[in-house]
Amino acid sequence: MSELDLAEKYFNRLLEQISPNDPQRGDLYKDLGELTSQTGRLDQSIEWHKKSLDFKAQESIQPIISKYCIELNRKIFI
């Protein structure tokens, strides 16, 4: 097993162990994208990079949504 194969195995294992909303998940997706690119699996690399971007976009919008919901609740219950 090559070092890149071993790294991919560990990245995937870590993805299984961390929480679905763990902030490191986006970085792991990006790392997997870079790793699969290095092994010549470009289609899979693109998928990992898309997952990374989608995760990071969702992560950045979540505080805005939470703040809006809190403000909305205040207006409803006042």
Explain what you see.
- With 78 residues, this protein is mainly alpha-helical.
- The protein contains 3 helices and no strands.
- 9% of the residues are buried.
Which labels suit this protein?
78 residues; mainly alpha; 3 helices; elongated
Tell me roughly what share of residues is in helical segments: over 70%
Unreliably modeled segments = none
Strand proportion: under 5%
Question: Terminal Cα separation, in Å?
Answer: 63 Å
Layout of strands and helices, then pairs:
Elements: H1 3-17, H2 24-38, H3 42-77
Helix pairs in contact: 1-2, 2-3
How is this structure best summarized?
The chain has 78 residues and is an all-alpha fold.
